[in-house]
Amino acid sequence: MKKTAVVLLTLLVAIAGIGLPIWLAIEEAQRQAFKVESDHALGYARDVVLRGDETGRQVQAAVARLAPHAAAPCAPAAIALMRAIDLGSSYLQAVGHVEGNRMLCSSIVGRTQVLDLGPPTYRSPTGVLVRTEVVLPFAAQQTFLVVQVGHVAAIVHAQRPIDTAKSEPDVALATLPLDVAVPLSARGHIDPAWTRRLGKEREVVFVDDGHIVAVVRSSVFQAAGIAAVPLTYLRIRSQDMALRLVPAGLLAGLALGVAILYLARQQLALPAAVRAALRRHEFFLDYQPVVELRSGRITGVEALVRWRRPTGEIVMPELFIPIAEQDETIVKLTDQVLELVRRDTGFYLESHPDFHIGINVAPADFHSPDFLDKLQAMLEQTGAHPSSIILEVTERGLLDPVVARETTGALRRQGFAIAIDDFGTGYSSLSYLETLELDFLKIDRSFIEAIGTEAPTSQVVGHIIAIARDLGLRMIAEGVESQAQAEFLLRHGVQYAQGWLFGQPMSFAEVLRRMEEAEKLAARAAG
């Protein structure tokens, strides 16, 4: 009997040793899956709110600009201004003058055609009229949203405010006012009652009606964005994670359970690897030459951060930069970049004040109270002039208008140059960029690649160049790979370029060697 009891106890311990890690693995998989899908839903809802806010701002700006023409709203000067507003807006399809339910003139058809808009769907407490699902004669297969303030109305594509990138194709999205249950723009099944869950909160996430639902309140308007991700994705993600964790638990047993969970978490938690890389100083810089198109001379470089793991593997920034931004370690990474620039360049910038180095900065750097002090410390250690440093920030980094204006203004007052990076990939309006203190506009490589092709984006680069000229900004084209692209850019007034045509990323010492060779060749040619 005693032997039997020992056998049974041993069997129970063995079963527990197998079962406990499996149970823990399943619980962890479900927790991680819910967090990932909740973050997805919140990200979609936040993006919808940003798009709705920007649409509202552009409507307000259009109303203000057309106010002086109220006495003659359909005069040629007023229609010309409508078309200028239309061209400079990223969300408005057209602007026009409305009497009753008819648009008497507009930026799209002038006075040649009166557009019947139908009765308003919604009237806000401030008197704004909104018409949803408006069909226009020149686009009968599409529906539009018409927002009217006074007698000025803006036409917006019905899906534009919710046209956000998403990895799950059947996510439901909507933007709607908080005072009535009428979605202004929606895709998929949305329950307007979900906005009641907000209460006094800025944003909430919950499960309802077979969806993970995120509701985010606008900080500008009495409106909210909603995203609903089907629970199917949660189940699929839970199963995928469980399939990775459960076999390990089966093989490892009770003694290795804790270690296996720790390793699994490490695999799922790249932020820990990035933090470790920062501690071990595994990051280094390559420098891509920036040339003056007119002379072909190297006038600067862009510092590009790379990650060399202990195995020798090189990790590209597209993988670790988003992780560092989400984990809030991006500021520490920028600190290391500044230190690497100081180490690599030495006192070269002190003796060559016309040479510049472009340094990428994140939105979190703009919010860091000691960012300017760190830049000043780097200058003191290298003897460089502030004008030799170009701080490159993406459009996403300028979404907070207060922080963007204060930080760009403070940096430029100290002599630093500011460049808006990857321009054209975000949703910055021309009127908003005019309020910022900028020096350079960097044209994203996706538009450079389209030069001379039949791609839909092939004409965009010309519009971007026109915007830069209007703002008085110098231009740097990214990703230039052919002489034809370089010649096109030079003809159209772009001053600088970088890309494999001029040199792939390399060490700073190699940049100096190439510059020295170019100077020798120029001297021989002159002699």
Q: Specify Rg, calculated over alpha carbons.
A: 28 Å
How far is it from the N-terminal to the C-terminal residue, by CA?
106 Å
Tell how many strands the DSSP assignment holds: 21
Give the overall shape. globular
Low-confidence stretches: 1-11, 254-268
Number of helices: 15
Let me know the largest β-sheet: 8 strands, mixed, barrel
Structural class: alpha+beta
Helicity range of the residues? 40-55%
Bin the strand percentage: 15-25%
Residue-averaged pLDDT: 83
Major sheet strand order: 13-14-16-17-18-19-20-21
Give a topology summary.
Elements: H1 2-66, H2 76-88, E1 94-99, E2 102-106, E3 115-116, E4 122-123, E5 129-136, E6 139-149, E7 152-157, E8 172-177, E9 185-187, E10 203-208, E11 211-217, E12 223-230, H3 231-268, H4 270-279, E13 283-292, E14 298-308, E15 314-315, H5 317-326, H6 330-345, H7 348-351, E16 356-360, H8 363-367, H9 371-382, E17 389-394, H10 401-413, E18 417-423, H11 430-433, E19 440-443, H12 445-449, H13 460-471, E20 474-477, H14 483-491, E21 496-497, H15 508-526
Parallel strand pairs: 14-16, 16-17, 17-18, 18-19, 19-20, 20-21
Antiparallel strand pairs: 1-2, 1-7, 2-3, 4-5, 5-6, 6-7, 8-9, 8-12, 10-11, 11-12, 13-14, 13-21, 14-15
